[in-house]
Amino acid sequence: QVQLAESGGGSVQPGGSLRLSCVVSGYTYSSLSMGWFRQAPGKEREGVAAIDTRGGPSYAHSVRGRFAISRDNAKNIVYLQMNGLEPEDTAKYYCAADSGLVAGPLDRDEYTYWGQGTQVTVSS
Fold it and tell me: What span, in angstroms and rounded, lies between the C-alpha atoms of 26 and 87?
């Protein structure tokens, strides 16, 4: 059974940084494509960043240049480094995984496995 556990959320001021981590267990991690999604109150869950099995990243336009996704296959972890945080980045962030993406890597319907989420709040 695949399990994903996020950590690293918190409260920061605008312009601040956070690094989210997601540990994966129960699957051959190197064969999983990984994604980070977020959901703010009253809004749909949206793709933020994704990384394929070869380490190739994809980013939503709203975070490109501020966020960076990376993976450590030796530790079964995917990271999301978030810099230049803005109040609009406030949301619950979810880690997701799948072994066979067909369409876009930022499409939430592509992912089978999900974590419980970690809250990120950006305010002054």
Answer: 35
Tens of pLDDT, residue by residue over 2-26, are: 999 999 999 999 999 999 999 999 9
Residues 45-57: pLDDT tens digits? 999 999 999 999 9
State the pairing for strand pair 118-122/10-12.
parallel
Please give the structure tokens belonging to residue 65. 């240049």
Length of the chain: 124
- % of the chain with per-residue pLDDT over 70: 99
Q: Is 88 helix (H, G, I), strand (E, B) or coil?
A: helix
Cβ proximity of 8 and 120 under 8 Å: no
Could you give the CA distance from residue 68 to residue 70 in angstroms, rounded to a whole number? 7
What gap in Å lies between CA 49 and CA 36, rounded to an integer? 5
Q: CA 12 from chain center: how many Å?
A: 18
